[in-house]
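Throughout this chapter, every protein is written as a compact record of paired, labelled lines. An example of such a record is reproduced below:
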Amino acid sequence: MTDVLLEKVELARDGRAVLSIPSLHLRADRVTAILGPNGAGKTTLLRLIAGLERPTAGRITIAGSAPDPQQRRVAFAFQEPEYLRRSLRANLELGLRLGGVAAGAARARALAALEALGIGELAERRADRMSGGQRRRANLARALCLKRPIVLLDEPLAGLDGAAYMRLLDELPSLLSQFTATTVLVTHSRDEALRLAEDLVVIVDGRVRAAGPKREIATNPRHADTAAVLGYSVLRAGGRRVAVPDAAIRPGPGAVMFDAEVENVLDLGDGWDVGGRIGEVRIHIGLRHDAAPPRPGDRWMVHTTVAYELE
């Protein structure tokens, strides 16, 4: 069981604290998403686990021991993959051969990983001549074919959009399940984190603000900064602060009500998008086309069907 445990881990650069993690447990054989805004320290955390950087203080244990960073059995898919000017197959085989895998076995594992990622037909193509979506799949194949007990993925869907993004986002959970490992991925997207992971870790300004099973974190964010990372609006209702998903805000009266000011109304073709504010918080509410929308400047009573109380 390859658990990863960080205890009293500190990392400073040029006298500035980058990470401060009193305790963090990444559970074995699960997919954990590290979620947070840009500059929060997400990638730095991956680099510490991989042994590419050393903490200023503290201890990182893997499967109950603290191996030297050079001996950690970790596969790391970097955000910006680099490839040699060789075939895609040769690029994957190189990593395996450096890890001590015999030539025949390395070829078989490389080809199997490329097939699993849906790009087996590209095995003999020059790796530096692939499209963005192909490069992302190849990057995952290169990491997963190593069959390491820990797999680290830094923004695995970065740079993709449209159909290529949605296709890989849909396929990635089943792809990861084919390779038994403790998988840790970094993302700034709540939707990616919730789709891909079983556990969530929310990092803000180098500190862990929440960690645990994704349902527990998503339904009990506790803190306003965690709620913001999860894409919730932080609103005041009856003298208390609550986290509210935008999709849960509806027009009309209800159990938890707010007075909104309408700022703009956009015709999206198949419905209306009503933009406005509740206090200083920007909101958007979707309406069907057959509903009469409010007008800019109107005061509008709205309510929420979901409200998570914050500390």
